[in-house]
């Protein structure tokens, strides 16, 4: 089971600049069958020196260049990675230049000369510097390059790029010659000093020069080689623009080129057969082969897609199990009042939902309708709160699966009230030809209730609250009306000089919006006796009124009922006296003997009423103080009352016998 190195490993040859560098392998173990995947990471050692493209570099710098000007230097290359790769640069000591080490996006380092003190050609025509590149090994490895700087006369204006950084993206399979970006710079000088030539900066890697080409006249950057996303995802390209002056001015810019992945790698399937041939009696689930799939593409281009077919295993779901809907009465027919929403996580027809209104009560089907496709509930007719306040129904949501799954949702529709009914006067009745007159005697004190206006409002709640106000009266100072009760009271004591007849007009208003009202007319007579009023009413009533004898019939009925009640009470009194006399005689006779044979037996009321057979009753004999005596029960069946008494005496205990032969003064009372 040991994994051995079969030949010398060179990390730079295997992986180049990629880090980490790993080699994948698979191990199959049989009996039992198991598959293990592994990887060997090749760790880097510092076995390579940094290398400059050339051993010498030459720069021409005008003496007019101001302090702070930057000059890119050629970069050294180190095939090692990580800490062993190129880490920094060092510059020999000098009075004019400093070294600024920058880091690219990919982590590589490059150096720029920064002018700290202006040059003077008359003082020094040329400078010699040494640039040293160091890696991070222990001990570090290094490389050196000689930098020769010529100080020349000034070119007044250097080229200027319209932007310092350009960004572009290109697909990895883009053919050679495709335009990537166009850089542009300008120079304010005239003649050759204003002519611009574009080129790669001196520290541009050779790999970039192989993949991209730059037009020196137009500044167009085009694809030259074959781009591969799997090899490099982003290129950082440094370009420069020089004029054609004796001492050329230089400007620098950076172009970031992003390589876009395309699906140019087919999945690689590796099949390892470990069980072949397969016996015909092999059980289901027996492993036949192992497969591993890899794809060098990235993101979605590197997935292996397995389609999962849908099964109708999810019933429709609603955000709530029930809905309460409030609708104003007197609505417009055909308006939508609710949208029942449901979802189904299945796909296709399994997720297609249909809505059906299940009948609640018998009126639901005539009043409501639901859109089968979107679940919108419509009200087909106008509703009346006074007719019905609430409607209950069930909406069934069903998917299109086979078999279909469904969910029921309860819907309650409440009809809210509008103030569409005015108060209705019940007393005095407004639609009759008869005149109802209430009577009050002269001298009646203030605060006496004379009569009451009775009204009802078919609306509900606040819309049904009725207030009563006195709108018109023969004498406004004589009567008042309760604001909420409708009761009419005397406002002051009646005097003899008050008018004998009074007509009151009562205004009834509800509390709805808008306010609806009605009125009632009340007639009140001031009379000493009822006879006078009746005489006046008789004169006022029509001659052919069919109810003119009602009073006489009512009085006659009261007299007959009173007489019947008196006779009934007298009969009950006589019967009570008779029973009392009987009980008194029985008590007197019981004192003359200790025991006498009971007379004819009287059944209890239940037997006498015919509700219980005679053989089921019990005879009871009590002493004078029956509350403290024991009871004797008769046997279930006897042939005669006398025999039953004898059997009872024989079966009774001696103690009970002495109690029986005692006086029976309380017998009538117990019998009662």
Automatic annotation (TrEMBL):
It is a single-pass type I membrane protein. Residues 634-655 are annotated as: Disordered. GO terms for biological process: homophilic cell adhesion via plasma membrane adhesion molecules. Residues 634-650 have a biased composition (Polar residues). Residues 53-161, 162-269, 319-425, 432-544 form the Cadherin domain. It comes from the Eukaryota. The chain crosses the membrane at residues 552-575. Its main location: membrane. InterPro entries: Cadherin-like_dom, Cadherin-like_sf, Cadherin_C, Cadherin_CS, Cadherin_N, Protocadherin/Cadherin-CA. This is PCDGK protein. It comes from Ardeotis kori.
């Amino acid at each position: 089971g040991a994994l051995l190195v079969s030949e010398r490993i060179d990390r730079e040859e295997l992986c180049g600049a990629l880090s980490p560098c790993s080699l994948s392998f698979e191990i199959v173990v049989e009996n039992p069958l198991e598959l293990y995947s592994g990887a060997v990471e090749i760790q880097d050692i510092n076995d390579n020196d940094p290398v400059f493209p050339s051993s010498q570099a030459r720069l021409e710098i005008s003496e007019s260049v101001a302090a702070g000007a930057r000059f890119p230097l050629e970069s050294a290359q180190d095939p090692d990675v990580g800490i062993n790769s190129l880490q920094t640069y060092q510059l020999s000591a000098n009075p004019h230049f400093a070294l600024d080490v920058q880091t690219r996006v990919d982590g590589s380092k490059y150096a720029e000369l920064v002018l700290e003190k202006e040059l003077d050609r008359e003082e020094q025509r040329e400078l010699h510097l040494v640039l040293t590149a160091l890696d991070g090994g222990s001990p570090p490895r290094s490389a050196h390059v000689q930098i020769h700087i010529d100080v020349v006369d000034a070119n007044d204006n250097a080229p200027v790029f319209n932007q310092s950084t350009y960004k572009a993206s290109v697909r990895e399979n883009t053919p050679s010659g495709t335009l990537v970006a166009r850089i542009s710079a300008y120079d304010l000088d005239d003649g050759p000093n204003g002519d611009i030539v574009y080129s790669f900066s001196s520290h541009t890697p050779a790999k970039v020069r192989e993949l991209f080409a730059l037009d020196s006249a137009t500044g167009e950057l085009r694809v030259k080689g074959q781009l591969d996303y799997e090899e490099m995802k982003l290129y950082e390209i440094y370009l420069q623009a020089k004029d054609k002056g004796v001492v050329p001015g230089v400007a620098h810019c950076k172009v970031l080129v992003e390589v876009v992945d395309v699906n140019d790698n087919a999945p690689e399937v590796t099949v390892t057969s470990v069980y072949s041939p397969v016996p015909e009696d092999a059980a289901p689930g027996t492993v036949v082969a192992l497969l591993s799939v890899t794809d060098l593409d990235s993101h979605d281009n590197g997935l292996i897609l397995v389609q999962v077919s849908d099964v109708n295993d999810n019933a429709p779901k609603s955000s709530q199990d029930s809905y309460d809907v409030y609708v104003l009465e007197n609505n417009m027919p055909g308006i939508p009042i609710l949208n029942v929403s449901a979802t189904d996580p299945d796909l296709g027809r399994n997720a297609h939902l249909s809505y059906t209104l299940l009948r609640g009560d018998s009126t639901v089907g005539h009043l409501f309708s639901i859109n089968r496709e979107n679940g919108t509930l419509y009200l087909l007719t106008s509703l009346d709160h006074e007719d019905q306040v609430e409607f209950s129904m069930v909406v069934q949501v069903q998917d299109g699966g086979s078999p279909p799954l469904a969910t029921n949702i309860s819907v309650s529709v409440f009809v809210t009230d509008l103030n569409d009914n005015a108060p209705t006067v019940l007393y005095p009745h407004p639609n009759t030809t008869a005149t109802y007159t209430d009577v009050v005697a002269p001298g009646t004190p203030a605060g006496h209730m004379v009569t009451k206006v009775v009204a009802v409002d078919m609306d509900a709640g606040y819309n049904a609250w009725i207030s009563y106000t006195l709108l018109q009266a023969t004498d406004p100072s004589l009567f008042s009306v309760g604001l909420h009760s409708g009761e009419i009271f005397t406002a002051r004591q009646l005097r003899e000089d008050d008018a004998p007849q009074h007509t009151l007009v009562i205004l009834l208003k509800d509390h709805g919006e808008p306010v609806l009202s009605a009125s009632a007319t009340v007639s009140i007579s001031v009379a000493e006796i009822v006879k006078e009023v009746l005489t006046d009413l008789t004169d006022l009533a029509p001659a052919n009124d069919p109810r003119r004898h009602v009073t006489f019939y009512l009085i006659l009925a009261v007299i007959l009922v009173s007489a019947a009640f008196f006779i009934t009470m007298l009969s009950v009194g006589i019967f009570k006296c008779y029973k009392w006399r009987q009980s008194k005689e029985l008590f007197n006779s019981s004192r003359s003997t200790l025991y006498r044979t009971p007379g004819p037996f009287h059944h209890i009321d239940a037997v006498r009423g015919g509700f219980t057979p005679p053989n089921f009753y019990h005879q009871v004999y009590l002493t004078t103080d029956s509350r403290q005596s024991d009871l004797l029960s008769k046997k279930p069946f006897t042939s005669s009352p006398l025999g039953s008494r004898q059997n009872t005496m024989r079966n009774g205990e001696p103690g009970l016998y002495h109690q029986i032969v005692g006086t029976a003064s309380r017998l009538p009372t117990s019998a009662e």
